[in-house]
Write a structure and sequence with these properties.
This protein is mainly alpha-helical. It is built from 9 helices and no strands. It has one domain.
């Protein structure tokens, strides 16, 4: 992944494709989002990660719905939460998927395949995927900070003053708190369903 930036202007496309393939292959997406933040910065890293996640999750959704339906249904039948998700999605599809996307406790990659087995439409699935943005932003922000720390570790002189880093870490803390609040609200709402 560290060599992705050697692709020059094609680096974002390569990153998005790698990300999409990783989502389909059930590789944890958070690690890729952190890498995206380190490589491309917070905003671009978030944008590329969400784009790759949308492509990958849509592919997994369609694979679950049309290609591997029987095998996935058999595997997921052993998970009691899947039946509850299916019932909730059939009643309030877009809202439930949005809440599931906001929740850090629901495994993102498995959820894509599981949702392919439900009655939710592809359009509602895609619309509700905006719930990926807060978590992607937080992970990209963490990646940006980690990338800066690694870059600074290799330099003899720190290029910024203390207030710069205080503001950077305050921003990270605010992002984590906001993401935790959104996730807690989503968990409560899912508990009500």
């Amino acid at each position: 992944m560290a060599t992705v930036d050697t692709y020059g202007p094609a680096a974002p496309i390569v990153f998005i494709l790698i990300y999409a393939i990783a989502v389909v292959a059930l590789i944890p997406a958070s690690l890729l989002t952190i890498a995206g933040g380190a490589l491309f910065g917070v905003l671009h890293g978030t944008l590329y990660a969400v784009t790759g996640a949308a492509l990958g999750s849509t592919s997994a959704f369609l694979l679950g719905r049309h290609v591997a339906r029987r095998a996935i249904a058999h595997r997921l039948a052993r998970l009691p939460r899947v039946a509850a998700i299916d019932r909730a999605v059939s009643v309030q599809g877009r809202r439930i998927v949005l809440l599931l996307r906001l929740s850090p406790l629901v495994p993102f990659n498995v959820l894509n395949y599981a949702l392919g087995l439900t009655t939710i439409s592809l359009g509602d699935f895609l619309l509700a995927s905006v719930g990926m943005i807060p978590g992607a932003f937080m992970y990209a922000y963490c990646g940006k900070i980690a990338g800066m720390a690694l870059a600074l570790a290799g330099k003899a002189q720190v290029p910024r003053d203390t207030s710069y880093y205080a503001l950077l870490f305050a921003g990270l803390a605010a992002t984590i708190v906001a993401t935790a609040l959104v996730a807690r609200t989503a968990q409560r709402a899912l508990g009500d369903v």
